[in-house]
Amino acid sequence: MPRYLTMVRVDENNAPAEGPSQGLMERMGALIEEMTKAGVLLDTAGLTPTSQGTRVTWSNGEFTVTDGPFTETKEVVGGYALIQAKDKAEILEWTKRFLAVHESYWTVTSEIREIAEN
Amino acid sequence: MTATNSAVEAVYRIESARIIAGTARIVRDVAIAEEIAQDALVAALEQWPETGVPERPGAWLMTTAKRRAIDLVRRKETYARKLAEVGRSLEDVPAPEPADPDAIDDDVLRLIFTSCHPVLSTEARVALTLRLIGGLSTDEIARAFLAAESTVAQRIVRAKRALGRANVPFEVPRGTDRDGRLGSVLEVVYLVFNEGYAATAGDDWLRPALCEDALRLARLLAGLMDREPEVHGLAALLELQASRIRARTGPDGTPLLLEEQNRARWDQLLIRRGFAALERAYAPGAAPGPYTLQAAIAACHARAVRYEATDWRTVATLYGHLAKAAPSPVVELNRAVAVSMAEGPAAGLALTDALAREPAMAGYHLLPSVRGDLLERLGRDGEAREAFVRAAELTRNARERELLLTRAHRVSR
Fold it and tell me: Which residues sit opposite B17 in a β-bridge?
């Protein structure tokens, strides 16, 4: 059964300034509980803003260290979920459910990547 | 059109256990419940391509199925009344309610306990549980167990009939009955896992898909029965065993012993999940059950970064506890291995002498396999070779036979 990493991308600059609503948090909590109970959600977490992040690059034999925020990027990874699903259709369904707990004024993108198991 | 179909089927697979469970509570019959659930799926396949996928597809399927279930019960009720017969009391038929997660969880638990009911043979329990709870198709179950699809289909049909004939109530057992019935549920999941982990028949030693189905069931149980320590014990055991799947075979499919495995290939996520489940499995004041003890043993291996770093004394002690909690010759054999590692091969071999006289162990290939290993370590090459050959004769798995013959050959050089 394949495992997928879904990376949740949000536009930090255009995300609702007040953050996630109470209702969103509750729906998200219920969905996480449901997915855990169904045995499909293996791990999930939200990430702190990119302003607290750091990038380390190795290029031409040298390191470059840059502290956030990274102004040039629009969409940033705001969280992730590791999900084990039977197939692509099933991970798509779970991902849609995850996105649909957000109010319609949100723009959120989940990037689904299958984990290479060998 | 096709995209909608695959979306409908994915929703159904995700929801089927809940829909069947919710429906079974109304009609009190798992066979009818499954039919109604599939009718709801057919309705979705017909309607959604026209109307679009509803906003809450799972709830749509559930409501459709429950409505049909209630219609069916009402029709039966009317029919019964017309015949002036006193049938089952149907006054408690609930109206289709908004989805309450806890109520649905209770229904799924009822479905699990019913599928694993002791009136059914072990094979029937396994097939029915994979079908109704795991959402596997008959074909998938047949392939997993190397059986003909018609055989499995028959098995499932008979199992459903047997439940009806025995009038098995659709409920979660309480009181004195509960422990035994829970044991039956855990056993089914454990058997499914083991069939994937060390296939008893066939050319492939490992069938990971079956392990993953079992693991998913174990996680589901842990979510539904949060306060049952042994459920977490089983989940911990399976997470930890599964963490080694990738490392258990070489590139050509040959089984690798624990000491030969590349521990960098162990799955750290599953190990972490196993440790977390194991913590929940220890109930204050209660002696740990057999699954928890086995999980604790697996955790000892998971903690050892190198084979040489294994805490064999703790492993041997845990096997001692396990031998008391769930006495069996197989446990005793494993204890012998652990003791041989902690105290030397002679101490281990002494423990296997008694086992060699057990009639239950006569056809068990792992006994001569272990004795071969211990005898080899003691330098008794002739006896070691004999034991490996004997073990190779007894195993039904082609890969394992090869490995044992190789070992027999290696001793003689």
Answer: none
Contact assignment for B269 to A92 by CB distance below 8 Å: no
- H or E segment at B11? helix B2-27
What Å distances lie between residue B23 and A104, B19, B29, B37, CA to CA?
Answer: 33, 6, 9, 7
Task: Test B269 with A118 for CB contact under 8 angstroms.
Answer: no
Q: What is the CATH number that goes with domain B102-168?
A: 1.10.10.10
The CATH class for the domain spanning B1-89 reads mainly alpha
Residues of chain B contacting residue A30, judged by C-beta atoms under 8 Å apart:
101
Give domain limits for chain B: 1-89, 102-168
SS3 B59: helix
Tell me the average confidence (pLDDT) per consecutive run of 10 residues in chain B, 413 residues long. Answer: 79 93 93 95 91 88 94 83 54 54 88 96 95 92 88 95 92 90 96 82 71 95 94 98 91 85 94 97 89 97 95 97 92 95 95 88 90 95 95 88 92 69
A31 SS3 class: helix
Nearest CA in chain A to B13: A90
Phi, then psi, of A78 in degrees rounded to 5: -105, -10
Residue A30: give its domain's CATH number: 3.30.70.1060
Helix, strand, coil share of chain B (percent; to 5): 75, 0, 25
B215 contacts in A (CB within 8 Å)? 39
Domain that holds residue A44: 3-114
Do residues A65 and A25 make contact, with C-beta atoms less than 8 angstroms apart?
Answer: no
E strand residue ranges, A1-118 = 3-11, 41-46, 54-59, 62-67, 75-84, 108-114
Domain count, chain A: 1
Among A36, A89, A100, select the one facing B6 at the smallest CB separation.
A89
Angle at A110 between CA A107 and CA A113, to 5 degrees: 160
The pTM (predicted TM-score) of the whole model is 0.87
CB contacts < 8 A (A, B): 54
